[in-house]
Amino acid sequence: MIPQETLGTARIPGQAGAIQLCRHDRDFSIRVQGIELMTSREHGSEEVLAELALACLPSTDNARVLVGGLGMGFTLARTLQLVGTAAQVEVVELVPEVISWNREWLGELTGHPLSDRRVSALAGDVLQRIRSANADYDAILLDVDNGPVGLTRPANDRLYDRAGLAAAGIALRPGGVLAIWSSTPHPQFAKRLRSAGYEAREERVRARLTRGPHRTIWIATARRWGSRRRNQRGPSTPSG
Description:
The protein has helices at about 45-55, 75-80, 95-110, 125-130, 160-170, 190-195, 225-235, and strands at about 5-10, 20-25, 25-30, 35-40, 65-70, 90-95, 120-125, 135-140, 170-180, 200-205, 215-220. By secondary structure, it is of the alpha/beta class. Mean pLDDT is about 90; it is low at about 225-240.
């Protein structure tokens, strides 16, 4: 019987718990306090997150995309497959070691997306990045914690409250799309998106596309932010 190896351990900023990268035979997993948060065996829904979001854009040739949560890199890798050579993709990961793990261990699973010249990888809180943006992004893809009901860090809930959703709306360009992944259903979240000024729909997908547990993805486009963005914050100046 092949034993499980622990390849790395890191602290979660602002949280007492630790996050671990583990390997069992050819499979990798990231665990929090012994709970499996993600695994290389199940990544279809993470790829669908990128597919559904980018399908909403009239063109992805020059798209600017923000990915919140690197994880094992599957959402980032699929995003890169769907955007043009002139696109820019930022990925923000709270735990710096997760970025290191992707470079050292996990990149081979996804074709080493962090080595792509279109990618900027930042260690930090994606909400702070969103709050600093002003009509910078065509799409924001959030795969942070377990979705609107957090597991690893209560502060992540701020991404999904009304103020966090409003900040995302301001960060998006007119016609931009906000896509959110969740491991579990959240019956009231679509209503929260709509009350925050989005047209929203909910998709249920399988973790492995055709089998495995169901995951939930919300696709939301901003209705209200165009005029308020210009009046409140001035003209957009893309950063980076």
